[in-house]
Amino acid sequence: MSINQGDAYLRIDHVSKSFGTFEALTNVTLEIYAGEFVCFLGPSGCGKTTLLRAIAGLDIQTSGRIFQGGRDISALPPSQRDFGIVFQSYALFPNLSVADNVAYGLVSTRRPKAEVEGRVRELLTLVGLGGQEQKFPSQLSGGQQQRVALARALAMSPGLLLLDEPLSALDARVRQHLRSELKELQRKLKVTTIMVTHDQEEALAIADRIVVMNHGVIEQVGTPLDIYRHPGSAFVADFVGHMNFLPVERVAADRVRFGSFEFTAPVNGNQDATATLCVRPEDIQIRNVIPGQDNSLKATIDHMEFLGSFCRAELVVNGGRHLKADFSINAMRDLSLEPGQEILIALPADRLRLFRGDAHV
Ligand code: ATP
Fold first, then answer.
1. How far is the CA of 23 from the centre of ligand 1 (A)?
2. Where does ligand 1 bind, in terms of residues with CB under 6 Å?
3. pLDDT tens sequence across 12-66
4. Which domain holds residue 292?
5. If 0-12 CB within 10 Å is exposed, 13-18 middle and 19+ buried, where does residue 340 land?
6. Mean pLDDT throughout 318-322?
7. Is the N or C terminus of the chain more exposed, i.e. has fewer CB atoms within 10 Å?
8. Whose CA is nearest to atom 25 of ligand 1?
9. CA 24 to ligand 1 center in whole angstroms
C-alpha cells in the first residue's frame, strides 16, 4: 500500500501494556504521519520507551493494535516489521569495522557485494563519516559511533526510524551538533521518525510534533510552538519550559484574585472557584508598566542570575510568593535593576493560562 506525505503512516490504536500488575501504558491512541519527526517526551518512567518498543515489536502490547502503512503489525515479530532503530548505547559490534557494522543487515539479506559497498559508502558520506570505513568502533568518539549506528539503522531504507534517546550519552556540544544534523538528515530523507527523549529542549528543537507523556498516558500532542504556548495541562506547562504558578480565586468569568491583586485572565472551560494561573518568565513585562494598569503588580527583586543573553530575576510578590521573570540585558541596564529594588511588573492577559485546582502551586 502506498502512503503519501501527510497521510497517517503509523496508527497506534488503544494500546495498553502491563508488566505484571503494573500498567506502563494506558489506552494510548496516536497517529503519526508519513515524513514526520515526532518526539515522545516525558519524565523518566512515563512509558515512552515502552511505547517505542511496542512499535518495534520488541515488547508486545497487552491490548490494542498497531498499524504501519495500513498493515496490522500488532502481532508481528521485529524482523517482520519495517524499521531501523538506534539506542542510547551505540550497540555497535566492537569486532567489526565501521563498514561491516553498517553493512550487517545488507549482507544478511545477500545483496551483491558491489551494491553493499556502494550503499555503505553512500550512508557513511551521508552521516559525515566518509573515509572512516576501516576503523573500529573503539577508535571513534561517542558522536561518531552514534553516526555509525544511524547509518546502520538507515541501511535497509526503513519506512520508520526509531531513536531511543540517541543523543543522551553525548556531551552537550556534540549533542547539539548531532541534533541539528539529525534533523537535516531526516528532512532530506523524509523518513518517518520517532525519537524518545526526556529533554524538552531537544524535543522543541527537533520535532515536527511532540507527544507529551505522563504516567503511561498521552497528556498532549502538538507542534513545539503549540505545546509551549498552549500547554493543555499544568503538567505540560511545568514540564516544557519554565513556568510560574500562582494560586488564584475566581471573582468573575474573566477575573481572578491573587492576594490583594486582581487580574484579567483567559476564560477557559472550567469556572471553579479556585484555579492555578500560569505565566512564563519571558512573558512578564517590566518596561513601560503604568501604575494602575490592568494586570500590574508590585514586586521586589530577590536576586538575579545573568544567563548570557538575558537575566532571570527571582521576584517576590504579595508577601512571599516567588515568581521568575526574564528581562533583557538592555532592560536590566536601563532600569538599573538590582536585588532589593521594588519594581512594577505586568502579566499580559493574553499570555496567561488558567488550570484547574491547585496543581503545582
Ligand atoms: P526512561 O526515560 O527512564 O527510560 P521511560 O519513559 O522510557 O523512562 P519506560 O522505560 O517506558 O519509561 O518504563 C515505563 C514504566 O514501566 C517504568 O515504571 C518501568 O519501571 C516499567 N517497566 C519498563 N519495562 C519493564 C519491564 N520489562 N518489567 C517491568 N517493568 C517495566
1. 10
2. 19, 22, 24, 42, 44-50, 198
3. 999 999 999 999 999 999 999 999 999 999 999 999 999 999 999 999 999 999 9
4. 243-356
5. exposed
6. 85
7. N
8. 19
9. 7
Residue 43 lies in a domain: yes
Of the candidates 209, 211, 212, 190, the residue with the CA atom closest to the CA atom of residue 34: 190
Grid cell, residue 327, equals 528581562
Split at pLDDT 50, 70, 90, the class of 90 is: confident
232 and 249 housed in the same domain: no
CA distance 48 to 219: 12
The cell numbers describing 336, all together, are 538599573
Task: Give the angle subtended at the CA of 315 by the CAs of 314 and 317, to the nearest 5°.
Answer: 150
Q: Which of 17, 18, 28, 46 to mutate to test the pocket of ligand 1 (most atoms within 8 A of CB)?
A: 46
- CA count, 13 A, side-chain hemisphere, 355: 21
Q: Mutation test of ligand 1: which of 25, 26, 39, 49 has the most ligand atoms closer than 8 Å to its C-beta?
A: 49
**Residue whose CA is at the smallest distance from ligand 1 atom 21:** 24
